[in-house]
Design a protein that fits this description.
6-stranded mixed beta sheet; globular; single chain
């Protein structure tokens, strides 16, 4: 019998193919795992609003005994909405992060559980796309207007070459390293969460609650924000389309997201 009791799966370019679709092959593999009592935990940088449509497709939504990790580890909850763990940025964190965006000329936004906020008068195209993908409204707000909002995650979001150049300014980001964890989740996104918040730490919270161990966890991902959970899991899987750093730390590499890599991984190493 497999030791795997939890399969943590990233969404974009992992669960979904490059057309942002959940294929029948992947869906059937996940349902087979669920039928064997394995908990499938969608684990994403998205807010819950951007995850719920896929929970519904997988028959995992609105359950007290199924779990989801959103905001890159910022929130751990049941799929019925009972919060297990939640962390947020302080208003001072937000102001300092916004100041870096201003200095570097980057588009920037922050997310609550219900809205995406930006102070960019020239609204970035990736911010618009992000709002569409995660199914939450994009709202313009001046910094002073966000003082009383619960801000869970921030994102520098711009053309890949601009993000690549920005992250070279380590001196700016290092000034916040005692308060903020930064991760490169896609070529266009550089994300900021409260210190110590990532997908791996969120999985640790969940397995402790369920009385499981790392050996009971399989994690599948493709990008830098998946590194922590793939390293944490007893069985860490990199997608064929994953960044090289993730492939190097994973125990196994599966097919890419356009060839049902998640289904292949589940069938080979979990069922």
């Amino acid at each position: 019998m497999s030791a795997i009791k939890i399969i943590a799966i990233d969404i974009d370019a992992t669960l979904l193919n490059s057309n942002h679709q959940l294929t029948d092959t992947v869906k059937n593999a996940i349902k087979s795992a669920s039928e064997k009592g394995i908990k499938v935990v969608l684990t994403s940088g998205r807010p819950i609003s951007g995850i719920r449509p896929f929970l519904k497709q997988l028959d995992l939504d609105d359950r007290n005994d199924q779990y989801v990790i959103s905001f890159g580890g910022g929130v751990v909850e049941t799929t019925s909405g009972r919060i297990i763990s939640a962390r947020s940025l302080s208003y001072e964190d937000y102001l300092d992060l916004q100041n870096i965006a201003t200095k570097l000329g980057l588009h920037f936004h922050v997310e609550s559980s219900e809205r995406l906020f930006t102070s960019d008068r020239d609204l970035g195209k990736y911010t618009i796309v992000e709002g569409y993908l995660v199914n939450i409204p994009v709202c313009f707000r001046l910094p002073d207007e966000l003082r009383d909002e619960t801000l869970i995650k921030a994102m520098y979001i711009d053309d890949p070459e601009r993000i690549e150049e920005a992250v070279k300014h380590e001196e700016l980001f290092n000034q916040l390293s005692d308060r903020i964890t930064f991760t490169r989740s896609t070529p266009m996104y550089y994300e900021a969460n409260p210190k110590g918040t990532d997908k791996g730490s969120a999985l640790k919270i969940l397995i402790d609650k369920l009385g499981l161990t790392q050996e009971n966890v399989m994690a599948i991902g493709d990008q830098g924000n998946d590194l922590s959970m793939v390293k944490f899991a007893g069985t860490g899987i990199a997608m064929g389309n994953a960044i090289d750093e993730l492939k190097e730390c994973a125990q196994h590499v599966t097919s890419d997201c356009d060839h049902d890599g998640v289904a292949e991984a589940i069938e080979k190493w979990a069922l």
